[in-house]
Fold this sequence. Notes:
Integrase_recombinase_N, Integrase SAM-like N-terminal domain-containing protein, mainly alpha, Integrase_SAM-like_N, DNA-binding
Amino acid sequence: MGLFERLRIKAYIRFHQRQHPNAMGSAEVMGFLDHLASDQHES
């Protein structure tokens, strides 16, 4: 696994207040992707 993937995983976990990824579902994934998309539009 590369550095970029590790950073994205860490950001995903931090975004969801350090919940384990196994405890999350598709709604959390979509929320994180929306967050990433909105960050890219702002920068």
